């Protein structure tokens, strides 16, 4: 895999997408940056990070297996790859908060942004953006954020973490073996009642019963009826101010 390391960039995903468009020489590329001026998460949300304290990277993988049926399948695989990377560091209470956040002890420690490269409706490649809070200790105005250093008390080796993460992502996505039961086992709030808020501001309580193949969150109401939600169509009230 070709590796590119940068000091400052607007967005590792944007840089990598442009790189891929300009050259066809590699089908696996990873780029790491010390700081992003316009780092983004899913649906255009912002990713805030102090310079050189966190892992900000993107991975391009071409020739994606045709066994992968959706972008959300890739999202699940990447989330599991991040868990595999963090677990040996004894990060406590790791969970996946739908659709793309990695939690430790109920606080956000990482996130994923998957952007497919399509030929028609077929996913032929993907740019995967990952942000992991590593050595940053203060998160002003982000009460739900934490870092590897904060939860372990240890300063982490960023280069080693980057190498291991990239390796896990490539091997997991290339294998294209989505372990749905393992994903659900790690899912925050599964089979528990959670407080939610709709886009119109109305609140309700429902139980998370799973995630559909297309990535929609599956909720069950107290009267037994079920409802499916796309991302950004509802808010976890526990994370409303995060």
What is the topological layout?
Blueprint (H helix, E strand, L loop, with lengths): L1 E8 L2 H11 L5 E9 L18 E8 L8 H16 L7 E4 L3 E4 L2 E13 L2 E11 L15 H5 L5 H18 L4 H6 L7 E6 L4 E9 L5 E4 L5 E4 L4 E3 L6
Parallel strand pairs: 1-2
Antiparallel strand pairs: 2-3, 3-7, 4-5, 5-6, 6-7, 8-9, 8-12, 9-10, 10-11
Helix pairs in contact: 2-4
Helix content: 10-25%
Q: How many helices?
A: 5
Strand content: 25-35%
Assigned CATH class of the largest domain: Alpha Beta
Oligomer: single chain
The geometry reads as globular
Rg over CA atoms: 18 Å
Order of helices and strands: EHEEHEEEEHHHEEEEE
Mean pLDDT: 90
Strand order of the largest sheet: 1-2-3-7-6-5-4
- Total separate domains: 2
Number of beta strands: 12
Major sheet description: 7 strands, mixed
Q: Strand pairing plus helix content: what structural class?
A: alpha+beta
Q: What low-confidence regions span 5 or more consecutive residues with pLDDT below 50? A: 41-45
- Do you know the CATH topology of the largest domain? BirA Bifunctional Protein, domain 2
For CATH, the homologous superfamily of the largest domain is named as Bira Bifunctional Protein, Domain 2
CATH-scheme architecture of the largest domain: 2-Layer Sandwich
Description:
With 242 residues, this protein is an alpha+beta fold. A hairpin with a 3-residue loop joins β4 and β5. Helix content is 23%, strand content 34%. It has five helices and twelve strands. It has two domains: 2-185, Bira Bifunctional Protein, Domain 2 (BirA Bifunctional Protein, domain 2, 2-Layer Sandwich), CATH 3.30.930; 193-239, SH3 type barrels (Roll). The longest helix has 18 residues, at 158-175. α2 packs across α4.
